């Protein structure tokens, strides 16, 4: 499941919200679901944050609410559900807020409360006294008052919400938000005890949003209450962080597969251990042979990947020391890469890796074949004769890979390749991807 599911009422806001989560280190994607919500289910297992845009800002409130509820159901379960609203509060703010509260309640059976913190400080949107300001001016004093489809006649956030919902609403004024944390927690707890279903929070800075989110989580601790958010994005990011949805809990190890017996390869692997703390595992071989033992090799790699954390580099090599080098027949030379690749494929069936590094041309070819890849999409050359790219085709399509021959480079080359691989994986995780519904293609 995705950690965060956001339902947005337009694509521009969806992309901006996804970018905010990506800036916090979470992998975020946007999906247009105006023609159907089926795009969501295909993305929640691949991204930390899925932002589904319904393009429902200017349609009938009941229709917008139905679209929101459908999107939440399709993306469920999620640890946090967010209703992304316009920074100037145009559109179906009340209807969609109520829809998120109602659907999450239906899915969990728990009490659900929406934290509505409509400020977007970096964009000049602030909330003071429950009033939404655009660059310091009330909404009705700005050009949004003349919006052709959703003219804003008031800046009162509660009044705007109550145009479309009867949910009990409570305002957290700026004096409480900026006061002592204990008093803010007490104020939120009191509002919850009084039956509030929506908390409208004042804020003028990003720090205010984080204070509110942290206090909200603290105030509801042990109650079984489920928080959702209704805001332009920054408040949702703050709530995700308050709930502990941090990127440090995500990611997979990098896997190094070496079938080269060259002295240079051994020195490169030793350097990788010394500089990057890689964990090394020798490939078990058949008795009196240099050919990998298929079952034993699979078991060793399976255990190594199971024990590895997200930042680990796992090395699986046929030769690590001079004593590992054995005379090899032509027949065995053909078997070594095939058996090694088979063990890799079986281990990857049960364990995800962030990226793959292979050294030795025969080994690389065998691994690609075992993984069902048609080839590589090359992104560039790391050093001469060492390249980086992604797998094309097969179950591991898109997996990042770096590869080189056993006699390529100097003692630092493998370190450089792993650094490049790590950077490519991290950049992809921060990428904000866009996808359309399969129903619209």
The N- to C-terminal Cα distance equals 24 Å
3D shape: elongated
Largest sheet: 9 strands, parallel
**CATH architecture verdict of the largest domain:** 3-Layer(aba) Sandwich
Number of strands: 19
- Identify the CATH homologous superfamily of the largest domain: Putative sugar-binding, N-terminal domain
* Low-pLDDT windows of residues: 435-441
* Fold-level CATH name of the largest domain: Rossmann fold
Helix content: 25-40%
Strand order across the biggest sheet? 9-10-5-11-4-1-3-2-19
| Mean of all residue-level pLDDT scores | 92
What does this 3D model show about the protein?
With 441 residues, this protein is α/β, with parallel strands linked by helices. It folds into two domains: 4-248, Putative sugar-binding, N-terminal domain (Rossmann fold, 3-Layer(aba) Sandwich), CATH 3.40.50.10840; 251-428, Molybdenum Cofactor Biosythetic Enzyme, Chain A (3-Layer(aba) Sandwich), CATH 3.40.980.20. Helix content is 39%, strand content 21%. The protein contains 14 helices and 19 strands. The strands form three sheets. A nine-stranded parallel beta sheet has the order 9-10-5-11-4-1-3-2-19, with helices on both faces. It has a seven-stranded mixed beta sheet with strand order 13-14-12-15-18-17-16, sandwiched between helices. Helix 11 links the parallel strand 13 and strand 14 (313-317). It is elongated. Mean pLDDT is 92; it is low at 435-441.
């Amino acid at each position: 499941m995705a950690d965060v599911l956001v339902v947005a009422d337009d694509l521009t806001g969806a992309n901006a919200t996804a970018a905010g989560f990506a800036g916090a280190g979470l992998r975020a994607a946007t999906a247009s679901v105006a023609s159907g919500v089926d795009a969501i289910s295909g993305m929640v297992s691949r991204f930390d944050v899925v932002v589904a845009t319904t393009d429902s800002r200017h349609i009938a409130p009941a229709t917008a609410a139905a679209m929101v509820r459908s999107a939440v159901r399709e993306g469920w379960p999620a640890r946090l559900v967010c209703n992304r609203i316009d920074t100037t509060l145009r559109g179906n703010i009340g209807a969609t807020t109520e829809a998120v509260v109602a659907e999450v309640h239906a899915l969990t059976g728990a009490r659900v409360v929406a934290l509505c913190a409509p400020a977007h400080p970096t964009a000049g949107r602030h909330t003071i006294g429950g009033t939404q300001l655009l660059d310091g001016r009330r909404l009705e004093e700005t050009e949004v008052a003349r919006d052709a489809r959703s003219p804003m006649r008031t800046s009162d956030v509660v009044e705007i919400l109550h145009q479309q919902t009867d949910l009990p609403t409570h305002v957290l004024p700026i004096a409480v938000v900026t006061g002592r944390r204990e008093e803010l927690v007490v104020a939120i707890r009191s509002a919850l005890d009084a039956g509030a279903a929506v908390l409208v929070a004042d804020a003028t800075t990003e720090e205010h949003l984080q204070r509110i989110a942290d206090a909200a989580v603290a105030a509801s601790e042990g109650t079984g209450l489920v928080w959702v958010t209704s805001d332009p994005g920054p408040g949702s990011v703050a709530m995700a962080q308050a709930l502990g949805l941090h990127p440090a809990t995500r990611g997979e190890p990098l896997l190094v597969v070496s079938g080269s017996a060259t002295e240079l390869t051994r020195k490169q692997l030793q350097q990788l251990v010394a500089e990057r703390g890689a964990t090394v595992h020798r490939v078990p071989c058949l008795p009196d042979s240099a050919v990998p033992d298929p079952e034993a090799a699979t078991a060793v790699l399976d255990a190594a990947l199971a024990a590895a954390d997200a930042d680990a580099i796992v090395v699986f090599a046929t030769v690590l020391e001079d004593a590992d080098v054995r005379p090899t027949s032509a027949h065995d030379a053909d078997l070594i890469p095939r058996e090694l690749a088979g063990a890799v494929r079986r281990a990857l069936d049960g364990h995800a890796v962030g990226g793959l590094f292979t050294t030795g041309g025969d080994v690389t070819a065998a691994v690609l074949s075992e993984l069902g890849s048609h080839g590589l999409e090359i992104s560039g050359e790391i050093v001469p004769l060492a390249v980086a790219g992604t797998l094309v085709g097969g179950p591991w399509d898109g997996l990042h890979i770096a590869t080189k021959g056993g006699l390529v480079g100097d003692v630092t080359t493998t370190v450089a390749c792993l650094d490049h691989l790590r950077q490519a994986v991290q950049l992809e995780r921060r990428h904000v991807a866009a996808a359309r519904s399969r129903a619209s293609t």
